[in-house]
Specification:
With 129 residues, the protein is α+β, with helices and mostly antiparallel strands. The chain is 38% helix and 23% strand.
Length: 129
């Protein structure tokens, strides 16, 4: 039974008038429709990049935030004197391909380059600051 007909059956049927019958029905729906995946597809984010994010955050090289989607990120890096934080927004385009979408300082040709890792972005822009 597909999900649409299952939901229609749940809404329009009088079979589930008691909580135990409804609970039993919902358990069968959730058990049958629950599929797990070991690997993420490269359409989303590859597993290697997720590991890089995990190590980047644990080392606290800079602050990293997710954007509106799983592919959008914002990184905050400090200048040498730690007086100001600079914002770098970038997007995951594919494996080993990060593209800068916005920065909070003057334009630089470094913004037009695709980077392969988070560390590349942070180190490049820290040198630029």
């Amino acid at each position: 039974m597909d999900l649409k007909t299952t939901i229609e059956d749940l809404i329009h049927s009088n079979k589930y008038t008691t909580f135990p019958s409804l609970s039993e029905f919902l358990q069968t729906v959730f058990k049958s429709g629950n599929q797990t995946k070991d690997l993420l597809t490269s359409d989303l984010i590859d597993k290697e990049f997720l590991e890089e994010i995990r190590s980047f955050v644990s080392n606290k090289c800079a602050l990293l935030y997710f954007g509106k989607t799983l592919r959008d990120f914002k990184c905050l890096i400090s200048d040498e004197d730690c007086l100001r934080e600079h914002e770098i927004c970038f997007q995951y385009k594919g494996p080993k391909m990060l593209s800068i979408t916005a920065v909070s300082f003057l334009y630089s040709p470094l913004q037009d380059v695709n980077y392969s890792t988070l560390d590349d972005i942070v180190q490049t822009f820290q040198k630029h600051l």
